[in-house]
Write the structure tokens for this entry.
Amino acid sequence: MNTLWTFGDSFTQSYIPPADRGRNWRNDYIEWKGYDTKVYPEFIAEKLNLNLINKGVGGCDNSYIFEEFCKVASQIQKDDSVIFGWTDVHRFRLFNKENECGFFNANALDKDGGAIFSQEFFNTFDFLSIQTIEEMIVNRDSKMFINELCNWVNLINLFLKDINVIHWSWDRNNSICKNIIISTRYERIIDETKGSIFDYHWSENGHKMFSEHLIKKINKDNLI
């Protein structure tokens, strides 16, 4: 059986965290639905009868996505398919004194509309000031980070030139990279639950609709 490899952030990650089912929006949604919900990689793999290796991690930045690909690039076979779900270039990662990775996201919003960091354990970065972090966030406005992403996409396409590859992003700013598909709006969790769960990720139906869009592209381009 051929394999579907997927890389990305929380829009790609399975609704069941691999090692931790701590309290978060995923579990709130699963409880609301009454079962473990599916994301677009699972819908695609089931529809096309592919083995799925999903490397998506919620809250991660693009450098993490690229590194996860680098770690397994030699394992990807000719008849496999690869999907990258690139995230907002304003996200970035840092490493604390224990060499643990933390992701920072200036654009994440809490239910009161305030900006938060997606990194949950900011206290492990107590050797850095909030001002330092905020200054780094300002620097992420540079167009060079978009250019960096475009270069990564081009390199991946060159490396996987004989393999089926799709790049997409929910962030319209990434449309500057001509090889990245920008997703349209699909039903969100906050829409389906009528506000009882304050979250803007896609609902299960939103993921199913997006998977159908990608499957149409796969069939049209004879990617599989």
